[in-house]
Specification:
Elements lengths: L1 H8 L19 H14 L9 H10 L41 H29 L5 H13 L3 H5 L4 H31 L9 E8 L5 E12 L4 E3 L6 E3 L1 E4 L5 E2 L1 E14 L7 E16 L3 E9 L15 E3 L2 E3 L3 E5 L5 E5 L5 E5 L1 E6 L16 E2 L4 E9 L4 E12 L2 E2 L4 E2 L3 E12 L7 E7 L5 E6 L8 E5 L4 E5 L17 E2 L3 E5 L4 E5 L6 E2 L2
Helix pairs in contact: 4-5, 4-7, 5-7
Length: 527
């Protein structure tokens, strides 16, 4: 009764929503009957076994009485265990470590959501509306069912037993395969419906834009060039190159930068009335300037050149300014000997140093928490060796590869509660790219993980002296304090520096700042 009176005093409306359960526990009919009998004696409260819909109907009927206002993200940690408040008084925990627990599940979820909402659904709708294409809605139902089955809180949080997450991988695979097939089917139908006849020495390429805004700039496209088309050789015939030119929808030739090629690739061509047949082609990756309308497409015509005719475009000036540096009109980037980046904003003159450093520490936690070890050793890559390679250097795209090798303890020894004296090498491979007109730096990093019981983070110092930072959430952009609460040591569950993001985090002062965009299922950030 005391608990209910406290809840009633904190609630503006008559209905009070309570849960008589915890995760995997069932409700108890015997306890239910006892509570109902006791509450009936007081006449102050009535116990109703209800559901969310019924509760919401009562809530809406009394919405004019709701005057209380809560501000903030409601992410306060557990209250103090000291004084009169016993530890068992509340089983409410924030469990903040689930943001990065089993991160591959988060990445798979982001991929499936993107395939369904940005590719399969909109372009299937366009194909059906404009071409009368038929599709089976049951496939969408099944894909969404498999995806949502993975969204149960302990499942998506990555904090259940291994078998649960093995089952999730199977569901993600089903969702991804269905969504990918539907997207490919719809975009293929739209591409095939583009008017205009093709000659024998021409191939049409359709480039789609799934974003709700126009896109213009340098894009990388893999062209499948027929193996029967002419080739040419540079110098003395060391490496033959397919000879072709690229034209926009208006017939104007588009200059391109040749990035890579894989010769004599094979893939199946599937027809409804024939057995699969093998199709051979040369896969040539090019960078070229494109403009694609929002949720639309543009077409390119690739035309074979005459035999032994070089199809070159200007390769200079490239964006590389030194063996370890590059720049465009907005940014200048230098790769330091230890693999970190020095980035200069040429408009403001602001320089950011030691970007792309890596930090490794022990993690003795579980699926709910990053566990801090008292006997820890934190390693940083700023004293490690780095190998730097220039991968591409041209007027449309310049890419450097940075290979950093960190030696870290191979595991945590829980019998002694220390990090192992035996070390293993972590190979961290980053590709950084810059294009003309681009105001951001692209970074793609792969970690070859050979260690256990540890946490690795990328460090990107902003050099900005401010008290708050910004991060996006599914529904809003929030501003958070950087410093942890001063009375943090008095809480039974400590507040941690890592907080949620949807895809980006930024810090800024009155003149400039730094934003880090990490889309695709990386949901944890810290400033």
């Amino acid at each position: 009764a005391k608990f209910l009176r406290e809840e009633a005093a904190a609630t503006d409306v008559d209905p009070i929503l309570l849960h008589d359960s915890c995760d995997h526990q069932e409700w108890s009919p015997a306890r239910y009957a006892l509570l109902a009998a006791e509450l009936a004696k007081s006449g102050e409260f009535e116990l109703v076994h209800s559901d969310f819909d019924a509760y919401l109907r009562e809530l809406i009927a009394q919405r004019d009485r709701i005057t209380g206002r809560l501000a903030g993200e409601l992410r306060d940690p557990g209250i103090s265990i000291w004084g009169e408040q016993p530890l068992e008084a509340s089983m409410q925990w924030l469990i903040p470590g689930v943001l990065s627990s089993r991160v591959r599940l988060k990445q798979a979820n982001a991929q499936c959501q993107s395939l369904l909402t940005q590719w399969a659904e909109p372009f299937t709708a366009y194909a059906a509306a404009t071409l009368g294409s038929q599709f089976a809605p049951g496939y969408f139902d099944l894909a969404w069912r498999r995806l949502l089955q993975n969204h149960a809180h302990d499942s998506m949080d990555g904090c259940s037993v291994d078998q649960v997450h093995k089952d999730m991988e199977q569901r993600f695979d089903e969702c991804r395969l269905i969504a990918d097939r539907l997207a490919l089917q719809a975009t293929s139908q739209l591409a095939a419906a583009v008017p205009g006849e093709l000659k024998d020495d021409e191939v049409r390429v359709t480039v789609f834009n799934p974003l709700p805004r126009d896109v213009a700039g340098v894009a990388e496209v893999v062209l499948e060039i027929p193996t029967t088309w002419p080739q040419f050789n540079e110098f003395f015939g060391f490496e033959p190159k397919p000879a072709f030119r690229v034209y926009a929808a208006d017939g104007q030739e588009i200059a391109y930068q040749r990035l890579a090629q894989a010769m004599n690739r094979v893939r199946p061509r599937l027809r409804t009335t024939k057995f699969p047949e093998n199709v051979y082609s040369h896969h040539v990756t090019v960078a070229l300037t494109l403009a694609v309308p929002a949720l639309g497409y543009t077409t390119l015509t690739v035309r074979a050149a005459k035999p032994e005719t070089p199809t070159r475009h200007p390769e200079v000036p490239g964006l590389a300014t030194a063996a370890n540096a590059m720049a465009n009109e907005h940014l200048a980037v230098k790769i330091e000997a230890n693999g970190t980046l020095t980035l200069t904003d040429r408009a403001t003159g602001r320089t950011y140093r030691e970007l792309l450093a890596f930090e490794d520490c022990a993690d003795i936690g579980d699926g709910w928490y990053h566990g801090l070890a008292l006997n820890d050793q934190t390693f940083v890559s700023t004293s490690c060796r780095a190998d730097v390679a220039l991968v591409q250097n041209g007027p449309l795209l310049t890419t450097f590869r940075i290979r950093t090798v960190m030696s870290v303890p191979e595991a945590f020894q829980f019998d002694r509660m220390v990090r192992s004296e035996k070390f293993t090498e972590l190979v961290i491979d980053s590709h950084i790219s810059l294009r003309p007109g681009q105001k951001h730096l692209d970074v793609r990093t792969t970690v070859n993980n050979t260690a256990d019981d540890h946490r690795i983070r990328v460090l990107l110092p902003s050099g900005t002296n401010v008290k708050t930072y910004l991060a996006d959430t599914p529904f809003d952009v929030v501003e958070r304090p950087i410093a942890l609460r001063k009375d943090n040591h008095e809480y039974r569950e400590l507040e941690v520096e890592t907080k949620p993001q949807q895809s980006w985090t930024a810090v800024h002062d009155a003149k400039q700042g730094l934003a880090v965009v990490a889309d695709g299922g990386l949901l944890e950030t810290a400033v």
